[in-house]
C-alpha cells in the first residue's frame, strides 16, 4: 500500500524536529559543561557568602577572603567541592564532586536552549508568522521567560544538593571534627552526592528536593528573559554595526570566508554572551540569595530543625523556612546589602562564563547546523 504524501511530510517534520531537539540538547550540554568547570570556584564563593547572611558572625569578610580561606583550609578540592564526587571513586587525583553540577549545567543549558527554541515556534504559530521569520525582541524575551520557568523545575533539586555540599566544611559538626586534636592529620569524611540526596529524601520526602524552588523560579524566569533578551539585542547591534561598516567601506561583495549578515562572528558571540551573563545575574539576584540561604539552613543553622515542646508535652517541629519569611529575615539582618551578598563575584564570573557558553553554542550551531 502506498504511503500518502501527507504522511511522508509528517514523518519528515517529526524527524527534523527530533534531530533539531537532539542538536539543541547536545550543543547546550557541551557549552554548559565547559563553562561550569571554569566558573565553579566563584559559584562556591557566592553560595558561601549568601549562606552567612543570617549568621550572627560572618565567616568571610568578602569574596577574596572566602577564596583565600577555602584554598588555605581545603585546597583545590575544596574550591571544586560538589563537582567531581563520582570521578573520585575511579580517579582519586581528580577534584571532589564535579559531576553533580556539571550534570546540572548540562541539563540547565540543554533545557534552556531547547525550550527557548520551542517557545519561539509556539509564538510563531500563535502569531501566524513564517518559521524563518525572526521574532521581535519582546517575543524573544517571552520565549526565554517560558524556557527559564520550565528549567527551574529541573534545577532546584540539583542546586539543593550542590549548595549543601558546598557548605559542608562550614557546618558546625564538620568544623568540630576537622579541628579535633585526636585526628589532626585525618580530614573528616564528608557525605557525598548520593548520601546528601538520600538524606534529603529520607527526612523531607521527594517534596523536600524542591526546597527554595520559589527563588529558582523567580531567578530563572526573569533572569533567562534578561539573558536571551540581552544576547539577542547586543547581537543585533553588532550585526547592524558590521553591516554599516561594510557598506561604508564599499565592501558589499561577499567572500567564501565572510560571515553572512545574520551570522555572528566568534568575538561577537562572546561579547553578546558576556553582556547577557551580567544581565542575568543583575536582574533578580536577591531571589538567588534567599534560595541559597534556605537550602543551606539545615547545615549551617541546625537549630532550625530543633523540636519544641507543644501542648501536653508533645513534640512540634519548627516549620520549614519559607521564601517570604527568609527574605524578611535577611533584610532585617543586613538590609539590601545582605540580599546582594556575593553579587559582585557572581557577575564577574558570569561575564566570561556566559561568553564561553554562547561562543561554543553558536560555533557548534554554525559548523554542524
UniProtKB/TrEMBL annotation:
<protein>
    <recommendedName>
        <fullName>Mitochondrial carrier</fullName>
    </recommendedName>
</protein>
<feature type="transmembrane region" description="Helical">
    <location>
        <begin position="93"/>
        <end position="117"/>
    </location>
</feature>
<keyword id="KW-0472">Membrane</keyword>
<dbReference type="GO" id="GO:1990575">
    <property type="term" value="P:mitochondrial L-ornithine transmembrane transport"/>
</dbReference>
<keyword id="KW-1133">Transmembrane helix</keyword>
<dbReference type="GO" id="GO:0031966">
    <property type="term" value="C:mitochondrial membrane"/>
</dbReference>
<dbReference type="Pfam" id="PF00153">
    <property type="entry name" value="Mito_carr"/>
</dbReference>
<keyword id="KW-0677">Repeat</keyword>
<feature type="transmembrane region" description="Helical">
    <location>
        <begin position="137"/>
        <end position="156"/>
    </location>
</feature>
<dbReference type="GO" id="GO:0000064">
    <property type="term" value="F:L-ornithine transmembrane transporter activity"/>
</dbReference>
<dbReference type="InterPro" id="IPR050567">
    <property type="entry name" value="Mitochondrial_Carrier"/>
</dbReference>
<feature type="transmembrane region" description="Helical">
    <location>
        <begin position="338"/>
        <end position="361"/>
    </location>
</feature>
<feature type="repeat" description="Solcar">
    <location>
        <begin position="135"/>
        <end position="237"/>
    </location>
</feature>
<keyword id="KW-0496">Mitochondrion</keyword>
<comment type="similarity">
    <text>Belongs to the mitochondrial carrier (TC 2.A.29) family.</text>
</comment>
<feature type="repeat" description="Solcar">
    <location>
        <begin position="19"/>
        <end position="109"/>
    </location>
</feature>
<keyword id="KW-0812">Transmembrane</keyword>
<keyword id="KW-0813">Transport</keyword>
<dbReference type="InterPro" id="IPR018108">
    <property type="entry name" value="MCP_transmembrane"/>
</dbReference>
<dbReference type="InterPro" id="IPR023395">
    <property type="entry name" value="MCP_dom_sf"/>
</dbReference>
<feature type="repeat" description="Solcar">
    <location>
        <begin position="264"/>
        <end position="367"/>
    </location>
</feature>
